[in-house]
Design brief:
Layout lengths: L1 E5 L4 H19 L7 H10 L3 E6 L5 E11 L4 E10 L2 H20 L3 E4 L3 H4 L19
Parallel strand pairs: 4-5
Antiparallel strand pairs: 1-2, 2-3, 3-4
Helix pairs in contact: 1-2
Length: 140
């Protein structure tokens, strides 16, 4: 399996496959009340979000990831905002390690942050991650 970045001008070519992954991630994390997949697509095209896909050897896309680089006064962070797809166990650790290397080498980031449900975080190898924070959602 390979991790590929989708250029903003190519997003329409993969959107029918990527969109359900993104919308599912939004819905499962409770973030669907803030935005939807179409807004994320616009942000990929215009606002600097990055779209990545996990591709099998036969070119079948099995997962989609949305990231961004956040610049802070002392350093930059690479944020994995959304992650969705199929067969997580088969690719999540290799993909996360690859994203960490990209964050460091391509963007000069000092850390990588992931946002998601506890379930997928538990799938990561212990040497790949540690929980450093949590957040509270207040819903009506």
């Amino acid at each position: 399996m390979r991790l590929l970045r989708v250029a903003p001008q190519q997003i329409d070519q993969v959107w029918d496959t990527v969109r359900p992954h993104i919308q599912d991630a939004l819905d499962k994390t409770g973030m669907g009340f803030l935005t939807d997949a179409e807004h994320i697509k616009t942000a990929i095209c215009k606002d600097g979000l990055h779209c990545w896909v996990v591709v099998e050897d036969n070119e079948n896309i099995i997962a989609s990831i949305v990231t961004r680089v956040m610049h802070h006064p002392k350093s930059s962070t690479f944020e994995v905002m959304l992650l969705g797809g199929e067969r997580l166990d088969e690719w999540v650790n290799d993909t996360w390690a690859c994203l960490k290397q990209i964050a460091k080498d391509a963007y000069g980031c000092k850390s990588i942050w992931g946002f998601g449900r506890n379930g997928w975080a538990r799938k990561l190898d212990d040497d790949i991650h540690r929980s450093a924070m949590w957040y509270v959602m207040l819903e009506d």
